[in-house]
C-alpha cells in the first residue's frame, strides 16, 4: 500500500494537513483543499478555471521515493528516465533535470522539448515505432540512445551516422512473449485479452530473431554502440509480481542474445507502467486502490527476479533503466473546475455541471480513468448527496458519476485528483474548447507554467478557401 509519509526525503519541507491525499496535497485547517502552501480556492479565483495545478515538491518526492526504492535494492546502476509523454511541461522537465532524472522521449517533439529544457542528452532514450530521418538525425547529433523498433530503422541510422560522422548508442525494443502472464488479466490498455495477449498484439517490439539480427548488424558497424534491450509493460496491471515476470524474461532474452552472438546487453530498460494506488481509488475503472503494489514492492520483486534469473542463466547482472511516468507525476497534479448549473430530476438523478471537461482529462472518456473528486471549498464537509459531476461538452462528459459529495451550488470549486500525468499532455478540444492554464505550486509560490489558450489559438489555424467566402452571403460565383 502507498502510505502517505511512508517515505520522507531530506530537504523537502512537508506540510501538515487535517487529511492528506498525498504528501503535499490535502485538506487545510480552513476546510479547503490545499496544494502545498496554497489554498486551491484562492488559486481558482486568481488564475481562473478550469485550471491544472501541479505540486513541485510532490513531483520531487515521488521521483526520489521511486529512485531510492530501486537504488537501495539493486546492486548495479539504476537509471530513472522520466516518461516525458505523461507531462510535457518544460517546468516539469526542469524539475526532473534537477533531480537527476533522464527521460524517455517519444518522437521528435518530445526529444526537442527535453533538449530545450536542458536535459542531458546522454540520459535520454528515443522511442517510437515509425521514426523519421530528421528525428534520427536529431538524436544522433545530440548523442541520444535510439531504441530501434523496425527492421529498416537501422538502414536510416547507419546512413545518418555516416553522413553526420557520429557514433550512435543503440537499443532494441523487444517483443517479449510474456508466457508467465498468459492467465493474468488487467486493464485493457492494448486491446483485449490477457496481459500476455495484449503485450503480443500491439505494434511495438522486435522478435528474438529480429533482435539478434539487428545486434549482429550493430556489432559490424564501428559507429554503432550496442547498449540495451527495452520493454514497456504498460499500465495493464498494478501488481509487482507481474512486473517481475517481465523482468525475468528480459534476462532470458539477454541469455539468448549472448548464446547467439557472444554479447550480453549491458542494460535492460524496463519501461513504465508502474502504478500507484490510493484508498480513494484511482486508475482504470478505479482499480488502483490500497492493494496496488508500492514502489518498494515493485523494486523488491523486480530486483530479486533479475538477480535470480541472472544467476540461473549465468548472465552478468545488467544495469537497469526504468521509465516511470504516472508513478511520478499522477498524484502531483489536480484539475480544478467551477460549479455552474446544478440540475435535478427529483428522486432520480442530480447533475453538477462544472467548467472543466473530459477534454481536459481525456482518459476519463477514452480509458474509463477514475479520478477522485473533492469539493475544494467544502473539503471537510460530510457527503450528503450522490451526484454526477459533468462538464459542458456535447458528449456524456462525465467527470465522475455517482459521486458522494457535500451539496454543491453555483460558484463552488471541485478538484479532480491525480491529474499530473496524461492530462495536459493528452487534452482534446471537442466543441472548440480552449486548453486550461497550468499553475506550478512550490511552497507559497504559484506560477503559470502553461498559458491559458486564447480563442485565437483555437480558431487561428482554420481557413476557408476564398471561393467559399462570398457564397455564404448568397453572392454569385
Ligand atoms: C516506452 C514507454 N516508456 C514509459 C512509459 C510510461 O508509462 P507509465 O506512465 O505508465 O509509467 C510509456 C507509456 O506509454 C511508454 O510507452
Shape: globular
User: What compounds are bound to the protein?
Assistant: pyridoxal-5'-phosphate
Structural class: alpha/beta
**Poorly predicted residue ranges:** none
Radius of gyration: 24 Å
Tell me the helix content.
Answer: 25-40%
Bin the strand percentage.
15-25%
Q: Quick one: how many beta strands?
A: 23
> Main β-sheet: number of strands, strand sense, barrel status?
9 strands, mixed
Protein described:
With 477 residues, this protein is an alpha/beta fold. It folds into two domains: 19-55 and 331-459, Lyase, Ornithine Decarboxylase, Chain A, domain 1, CATH 2.40.37.10; 56-328, TIM Barrel (Alpha-Beta Barrel). It is 30% helix and 23% strand. It has 14 helices and 23 strands. The protein has helices at 40-47, 56-71, 90-99, 108-116, 133-142, 153-164, 195-201, 208-220, 240-261, 295-313, 326-329, 362-367, 455-459, 466-469; strands spanning 19-22, 25-27, 33-35, 38-39, 51-55, 78-83, 102-106, 124-127, 145-148, 168-173, 224-230, 267-269, 283-284, 319-322, 333-345, 349-354, 369-370, 373-375, 385-390, 398-405, 413-416, 437-442, 445-450. Strands 5, 15, 16, 18, 19, 20, 21, 22 and 23 form a nine-stranded mixed beta sheet that branches. Strands 6-7-8-9-10-11-12-14 form an eight-stranded parallel beta barrel, surrounded by six helices. Strands 1-2-3-4 form a four-stranded antiparallel beta sheet. Strand 2 (25-27) and strand 3 form a beta hairpin. Helix 2 (56-71) packs parallel to helix 10 (295-313), helix 8 (208-220) crosses helix 9 (240-261) and helix 9 runs parallel beside helix 10 (295-313). The protein is globular and about 70 Å long. The N and C termini lie far apart (70 Å). 50% of the residues are buried. The model has no long low-confidence stretch (mean pLDDT 96). The structure holds pyridoxal-5'-phosphate (PLP).
Amino acid at each position: 500500500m502507498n502510505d502517505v509519509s511512508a517515505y520522507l526525503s531530506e530537504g523537502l519541507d512537508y506540510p501538515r494537513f487535517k487529511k492528506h491525499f498525498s504528501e503535499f496535497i490535502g485538506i487545510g485547517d480552513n476546510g479547503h483543499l490545499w496544494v502545498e502552501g496554497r489554498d486551491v480556492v484562492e488559486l481558482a479565483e486568481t488564475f481562473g478555471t478550469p485550471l491544472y495545478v501541479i505540486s513541485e515538491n510532490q513531483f520531487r518526492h515521488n521521483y526520489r521515493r521511486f529512485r531510492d526504492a530501486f537504488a537501495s535494492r539493486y546492486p548495479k546502476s539504476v537509471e530513472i528516465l522520466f516518461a516525458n509523454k505523461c507531462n510535457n511541461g518544460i517546468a516539469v522537465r526542469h524539475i526532473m533535470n534537477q533531480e537527476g532524472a533522464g527521460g524517455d522521449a517519444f518522437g521528435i517533439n518530445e526529444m526537442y522539448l527535453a533538449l530545450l529544457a536542458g536535459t542531458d542528452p546522454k540520459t535520454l532514450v528515443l522511442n517510437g515505432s515509425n521514426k523519421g530521418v530528421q528525428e534520427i538525425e536529431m538524436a544522433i547529433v545530440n548523442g541520444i540512445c535510439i531504441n530501434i523498433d523496425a527492421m529498416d530503422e537501422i538502414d536510416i541510422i547507419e546512413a545518418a551516422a555516416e553522413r553526420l560522422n557520429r557514433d550512435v548508442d543503440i537499443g532494441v525494443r523487444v517483443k517479449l512473449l510474456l508466457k508467465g502472464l498468459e492467465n493474468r488479466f488487467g486493464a485493457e490498455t492494448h486491446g483485449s485479452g490477457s496481459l500476455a495477449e495484449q503485450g503480443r498484439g500491439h505494434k511495438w517490439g522486435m522478435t528474438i530473431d529480429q533482435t539478434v539480427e539487428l545486434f549482429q548488424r550493430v556489432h559490424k558497424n564501428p559507429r554503432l554502440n550496442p547498449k540495451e534491450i527495452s520493454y514497456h509493460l504498460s499500465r495493464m496491471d498494478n501488481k509487482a509480481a507481474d512486473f517481475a515476470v517481465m523482468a525475468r524474461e528480459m534476462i532470458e532474452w539477454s541469455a539468448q542474445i549472448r548464446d547467439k552472438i557472444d554479447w550480453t546487453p549491458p542494460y535492460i530498460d524496463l519501461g513504465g507502467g508502474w502504478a500507484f494506488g490510493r484508498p480513494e481509488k484511482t486508475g482504470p475503472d478505479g482499480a488502483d486502490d490500497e492493494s496496488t503494489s508500492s514502489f518498494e514492492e515493485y523494486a523488491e520483486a523486480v530486483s530479486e527476479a533479475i538477480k535470480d534469473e541472472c544467476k540461473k542463466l549465468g548472465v552478468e547482472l545488467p544495469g537497469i533503466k526504468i521509465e516511470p511516468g504516472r508513478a511520478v507525476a499522477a498524484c502531483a497534479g489536480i484539475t480544478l473546475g467551477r460549479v455552474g448549473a446544478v440540475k435535478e430530476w427529483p428522486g432520480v438523478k442530480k447533475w453538477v455541471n462544472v467548467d472543466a471537461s473530459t477534454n481536459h482529462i481525456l482518459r476519463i472518456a477514452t480509458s474509463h480513468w477514475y479520478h477522485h473528486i473533492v469539493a475544494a471549498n467544502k473539503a471537510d464537509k460530510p457527503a450528503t448527496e450522490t451526484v454526477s459531476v459533468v462538464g459542458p461538452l456535447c458528449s456524456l462528459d462525465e467527470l465522475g458519476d455517482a459521486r458522494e459529495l457535500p451539496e454543491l451550488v453555483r460558484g463552488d470549486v471541485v478538484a479532480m485528483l491525480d491529474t499530473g500525468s496524461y492530462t495536459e499532455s493528452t487534452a482534446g478540444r471537442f466543441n472548440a474548447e480552449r486548453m486550461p492554464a497550468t499553475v506550478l505550486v512550490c511552497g507559497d509560490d504559484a506560477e503559470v507554467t502553461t498559458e491559458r489558450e486564447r480563442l485565437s489559438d483555437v480558431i487561428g489555424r482554420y481557413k476557408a478557401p476564398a471561393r467559399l467566402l462570398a457564397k455564404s452571403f448568397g453572392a454569385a460565383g
